[in-house]
Design brief:
eight-stranded mixed β-sheet; six-stranded mixed β-sheet; 13 helices; 420 residues; alpha/beta; 31% helix
């Protein structure tokens, strides 16, 4: 008796940067593919909103990191977006000369590198003990880069990332590039996946609207979703992959955004503003930093991470915005309130589709990202920012992982793969 062919050559689960890249690659190869997305939009953690403030607001990723290798700079330029290099506009309201603040930052780097060179992979808090509020500010900048509290950061991974941190911005928003690039792909929205089952013929993917069959599947959901077992795998995930999911977990990074009238902010476009942090909770200072006057629109984003970000999430958007505005008043004076128009706060830790902002490696977990990439039961592939070891935790890294996984599938299906 002839076997019924699968519905698709491949099914991609998740329409973020990795899922869209994988879907595009498979479409370009002429394969039958569908991308299933639980939310009502594509983009995942890459999303630009224009309705909240009337100007582009990246609810997720905004910085185009590692410009020399970032895949979305040439993609955005080809699509006609206005991209530009970020200027080094740093303002430290710490009562110290800028040179002294940079010296404090360098001292942190030196202390961390010394331990990594010695083969240590210990929490960042064990390698550098802050002496005052200025040191707390320097350490917070490291926490912002990692998206988590200091005691949850693998020093070895952070120090050995190896790429030059040169950044670009997009006037229309980073998320706008990702979504435009994937706008014409075969994506089925509002279609959460509840189970992925290996069969003798391939893979069955159970959704809220029925079961689909494919020869292969590429799973691009966050490690937060995987760890929460929001998708049931049969056979189940096991062994080294579960260990990796214990070490590579989601952090919380939120924006408390505030729109100001033209000219209200006494800084230039895309200026980064830090201030001294004196209040401590656990191992972290309770505070953040400001990206001011984004692309010259008057929009300012208060960036904050970890347990403090989750605390503000629980307190509500009004509390988060009020905290941010109060700190900005501390820096610039009370007149800044006169130019304030409205605010909005993101809640990535509470987002059921992501369960956090982006991944990070806990001490002792260096090298485990590659474990997450391993094919499960010969037909279930994985991709996402958590699997990338070069452009770690970036949208561009997620894009490259999607291409890698798609090339794995094409190779398995008998198609010569192309380089990612």
């Amino acid at each position: 008796m002839a076997q019924t062919p699968p519905d698709y050559d491949a099914i991609v689960v998740g329409a973020g940067a990795a899922g869209l890249a994988a879907t595009q690659r498979l479409c370009d190869a002429g394969r039958r593919v569908i991308c299933l997305e639980a939310a009502d939009r594509i983009g995942g953690r890459s999303y630009t909103d224009t309705s909240i403030f009337g100007v582009p607001f990246d609810l997720g990723g905004h910085w185009l990191h590692y410009a020399d290798v970032n895949a979305f700079i040439p993609i955005g330029q080809a699509l006609g977006f206005d991209l530009y290099e970020a200027e080094d506009q740093l303002h430290f309201d710490c009562g110290l000369p800028e040179s002294e603040m940079f010296a404090r930052l360098a001292a942190v780097d030196i202390a961390l590198a010394r331990h990594v060179d010695a083969g240590d992979d210990i929490p960042m808090t064990h390698a550098f003990a802050p002496q005052d509020a200025v040191d707390n500010t320097a350490l917070l900048l490291k926490a912002l880069s990692a998206g988590r509290d200091l005691d949850e950061i693998s020093m070895a991974e952070w120090v050995t990332a190896g790429l030059e941190e040169n950044n670009w911005f997009c006037r229309q928003g980073f998320g706008a590039i990702v979504c435009r690039n994937g706008a014409d792909l075969p994506v089925r929205l509002n279609t959460p996946v509840s189970a992925i089952t290996r069969t003798p013929q391939g893979v069955n993917v159970t959704t809220a609207h029925g079961t689909l069959r494919a020869a292969r599947v590429i799973v691009t959901v966050s490690v937060g979703v995987l760890a929460a077992e929001a998708i049931r795998f049969d056979p189940p995930l096991a062994g080294a992959r579960l260990t990796a999911l214990d070490y590579i977990t989601m952090g919380t990074y939120n924006h408390a955004a505030m729109l100001f009238q033209e000219g209200a902010l006494p800084v230039g476009m895309d200026a980064w503003v830090s201030y001294p942090l004196s209040e401590i909770s656990g191992t972290m200072a309770r505070g953040g930093g400001f990206l001011c006057n984004i692309s010259g629109t008057g929009l300012t984003s208060f960036e904050h991470v970890g347990a403090f970000a989750r605390e503000l999430e629980a307190a509500g958007a009004d509390v988060a915005v009020d905290f941010a505005l109060s700190r900005l008043v501390d820096v610039f004076g009370t007149d800044i309130r006169k130019g304030f128009i409205k605010g909005h706060a993101t809640r990535w830790g509470a987002n059921a589709h992501t369960r956090g902002a982006y991944s990070g490696t806990s001490p002792g977990g260096v090298g485990m990202r590659s474990t997450l990439r391993e094919v499960h039961e010969g037909a279930v592939h994985f991709a996402g920012e958590a699997m990338n070891e070069g452009e770690t935790v970036t949208i561009s890294g997620a894009h490259r992982e999607g291409l890698r996984a798609a090339n794995e599938v094409l190779s398995a299906l008998g198609h010569r793969s192309q380089s990612a």
